Amino acid sequence: MSEADEIEDITNAAGTGAVDFPKGLNIAGSASGIVGITQTVSTTEPSFPSNGDTWYDPVNYVYYVRINNEWKAFLGSPPAVGSQGDRGVFIGGSQGTTPIGAANQTMDYISISTTGNAVDFGDMVQEANNHKGGASNKIRGVIMGGSYGSTTTKINNIQYLTFASSGGTQDFGDLSANTYHICSTSDSTYGLGWGGYTSSPLNTIRYITIATTSNSSDFGDATIAARKSTGLDEATRNIKAGGELSNGDPINNIDYVTVATPGNATDFGDLTAASEHGSSGSDLTRGVINRGTELDYITMATTGNATDFGDSLYSGVASSGASYNGRLCMAGGGNYTSGINIHYVTIQTLGNSLDFGDLTLTRLSLGSCSGNAA
Fold this sequence. Notes:
By secondary structure, the protein is mostly beta strands.
C-alpha cells in the first residue's frame, strides 16, 4: 500500500493527460471533496441511500440503481408481494346512488401484467356492495363484510374465492359484527379487516387465517376510528391510509401494524391531503394511494408522510386497486358514467395513471384482491 501526505496533480505515465483508475479510488478523510457511490449486496433495501448507489438482491436476482431518490430496477424484475398474483379480481359494488343486485354480486377479473377489458369471474354467494374488504394469499381471496339492497342492510359474512377457478365464492365465516366500508390488508398468511361502519365508524382491527375457514378474531385497534379507508400490503407491515370520521370529514392519517404480531396500530405519517374512499396497491418497497384525482406514495419499510406521485386519469373515489409485480390497477369509482374504467401505474415510476380497459359492469364501492391464475 502506498501513502502520500499531499498530492497536487496526477497525470498519466506520458505526462499528457488524466489517469484512469480502472479498479476505482478510495479516499479517506472528510476534506477529500470526492463522494463515492455505495454498492450493496443484500436481500433488504439499504438504509440511507444516496443517488447513484447500487443494490443487488441475490435472492430475487434484481440489480437496482438509486435515481431521483428512488430505487429503479436496472436488471431483473422485482418480485411481487407475498399475497399478490397476476389475476386481479374486482368484487361487487353498486351502480349510482341506488344499489342494484347484479352489481352487488358481480366479480370481474383481469391479468394485471397486460392491458384489456375485464372478464366475468362469477358471482358472490351473498350480495355485498359498498367497499367490502379483499385479502388474499395468492391461492385464495377473502371478502369481508359489506351491505346489500341499501347501505342500511349491513352483513357480517366473510366469503372466499379460489383465483384459479372462476366460479364465484363460498362461505368462509363471520365478522364479529355486521360491518361495511371495511379496509382489508394481508400477507401470505393473515387477512386483516380495518375499521368500517356499524352504527358509527370503528377503530377495530380483526384478522383471519386465509387458508383456514373460520370467524374473525380481534387483532387490536387503529389509532383513529374511521370507515372508507384504503389498505397496503408489505411482507412485514400492513398499512391503512385515509378514511372518514363519524361527522363525515375525511382524514389524512396513515397507520401500520406488524402482521405477525397482533396488537394496536402505530402512526405512520400523513397523506398529502385528507382522503376517503380511495384505492391503493404496492410492491415490495412502495405503496401508491389514489386519493381521487391525485396519487400519493410512501416507502413502506420506513415511516413518514406521503409524497406526490402523479395524477389519476379517472376519479379514484369509491374505486378499488389490485397490484402485482410492480403494477397497480385501479377500477370503477367516480360516478355512474365513469365507474367502468380501469387504469394503472407502474409503482416505481412517478407519473400519471394510464388507461387499462373496462370492467364488465359500471359500478362504485367495489372490493378487490389478486392471486395466481393457476
